[in-house]
# Entry
Amino acid sequence: MHISYDRIVADPVPELTRFGRFTGIPEAEAWAARVADRVDAGRTGASAALSPAQTEELHRACEPGMRRLAAFVGEPPPAG
# Structure
C-alpha cells in the first residue's frame, strides 16, 4: 500500500479509511472521521526539503517497521 501525506491532507477521510481497512481497524470509516481533524496540513511537502542522504536515512529508519507491517498484513516485505 502506498500512502501519500499530501493525499491524506487533500482528502483525509477517504485516505484514512483506506489505510484503516488495509490495517484491519474495525469500523475504519468511523475511525477515519474521528481522527481526520488531527491531520496537520502545514507539513505537506516537508520531505521534498530533505537531502538525498536524509531521504536514504529516513527510508533505512522506517525499514524495520515496514517489514513488520508487511508481515502483519501477509504481504512480501518491501524491496530495498
Remarks:
- The first helix runs from residue 5 to 10.
- Residues 7 and 59 are 20 Å apart (CA to CA).
- The chain has four helices and no strands.
- The chain has a mean pLDDT of 87.
